[in-house]
Amino acid sequence: MRRTGLLFVALVFPLFHSAASLPFRGDEEARNSTGESFREDPRLELECERQNGFPNSLSCSESEWFVQGYSDFREDLADSGLLPLGQVHCCTPKDDKVDAVHVKCSARRGVENCAFLRHKPENLSSFLVGFSGSLRIDDIEYAPRGAAVCCDAIAEMRDGSRRYISPCDCLVTEEVLCPRTNNGLYRDRVMTGFLVDTNIGVPLTPAECCSMCLGEVVPPDSDCPRYDHCSSRGVCHGGFCECVDGYSGMDCSLRRNLTLEELFRNYSWDVLVCSASGTIVFLWVFFFVRRGRERSHPEEGVRRGSSRDRLLDYIELIDEDSDNDTESSAGEGEGEQSEDEEKGEVLRNVAGDESAKDASDGCVICMSSKKLVVLVPCGHSSICRKCSRRLDTCPFCRQPIIKRQKIYFAGN
């Protein structure tokens, strides 16, 4: 039984071990001029050199070149990895089978592994070409910092076909420069990214290094919908998938969070800034105008209510007018004749030019009802019945209100 268990472990362990890294695709079968078959190495031969790309010689300066590593490093005391420094080493495919290389690049959020080896090996496609920023370490040295710039690549073959260039024969190294392969033909490796990110945005080793291999044949753009090449989340353009916001990867199958810039990508920043500024100015002016009106007219909080409330106010006003008429007549001892004389005096005041003009306008307090009340004894007619009940003094001359007299217009 123990032998059976050991045999099972011996058979299964290599499978898990090989799944931890990207498997190297086997040599492709080909035939020479004599018709004899041989194994063709899918790994491309690379040409490598030092370059001085932005920023501070930390990125590849030429298109279709990919980061192989850096010339110097510094041990980080807070972490176990090495901090890459110095001039960048870059490589590009230089193979007899390849006529040209086309790339599509994008900046990732944070210092990420471009190939996503730790997440979805089936979507491996990108190679590292540099970083968006740098951090000054001393007077002459800089370290890469910020978002990793990753590129997908397509090879134009000499036979006229197009094939994807995919990472293969990958390994994880503790060095800042990728080692060459030593299985058979020597081939250079390039980086797909560093696997450690610090809290200040600089990368640390270990790093992931891969050979560049010829992958699948690029389908024509017209066949993309049929093969669902972009996972229904993008469109094909020149063999690359133009993914919608929120997705990335060679086939748009990788979900990612949107940045603030992507959320407002379809809007002009000028329009947004102008709209926000106009809104702030409008609210500011409205606040001060309203505040000034409240200071000059403290009674201006009265507003017309519902129809039922207006009807009740009308009834109460009539009752109040009746009570005021009775009290005024009894106090003065002049009876109905004195009341008629007072009404005549009020009507004469209303007939004046200023009062007649005011009566044609709305209430100066609520701005919604007609002027239907004359204040006694000052004779001003500038408010409605509802607002007059809430005042003790005239809003114009500040004289005490003794009585409120309803105005009767001819023809009403």
TrEMBL record:
Keywords on record: Membrane, Metal-binding, Signal, Transmembrane, Transmembrane helix, Zinc, Zinc-finger
Compositionally biased tracts (Acidic residues): 333-343
SMART domains per UniProt: RING
GO molecular function, one term: zinc ion binding
One family name in Pfam for this protein: zf-C3HC4_3
Name this polypeptide is given: RING-type domain-containing protein
Transmembrane segments: 267-289
Region named Disordered: 322-344
Stretches assigned to the RING-type domain: 363-398
Signal peptide: 1-21
